[in-house]
Amino acid sequence: MSDTSSTSGKKPDRPHAGVRREGREAAIQYLFQLDFQEGEPPTPDSDFWKLRAGAEDPDELNPIPARPPIAPKARAFAESLLQGVCVHKAELDEIITRYARNYRLSRLAAVDRNILRLAVYEMFHTTEVPPVVAINEAIELAKQYGSEESGGFVNGLLDKMRGELKRPARNAERTPKQTEPDPLTSPQHTPLH
What we know:
It contains 7 helices and no strands. By secondary structure, it is an all-alpha fold. The chain has one domain (19-162): N-utilizing Substance Protein B Homolog, Chain A.
């Protein structure tokens, strides 16, 4: 057991998480919100980013204590992921449903469902991140935000899906098939607002 575990049951914070981790966390939070609010735009508005940053003076309306705003590169990465997940959502859900044979998609925990959507998008539609990295990131997010069983559940499904990939599991690569630019390396990237 690591020193970061707590007896209070609260999961440890990751204050020094990287840009991509921060972007993935924001994307998961927004995808979770989309599941419960019909008609939301596929990219977060300024209210989402303000709420995510927390309150200077936490109260019952916004109990999240203030933290620094998301880094611009992390925000761009989150918005790129969100756009991709929203565009490919039907396909992502079909893949998840195929591998989660004993579960209807609607019966999966919302956190797990959206972590899976994000990871499957990264595995099947981007090439900047090796599939094993996408899987490991999804497992860590599931452990951080999901139930005690979420990490193992997400790991099991994504590991089975990895066999369907037509690219190496441990390498990032750029191929002509790539449709979404990497917001962390693309000089023309402009954030979606």
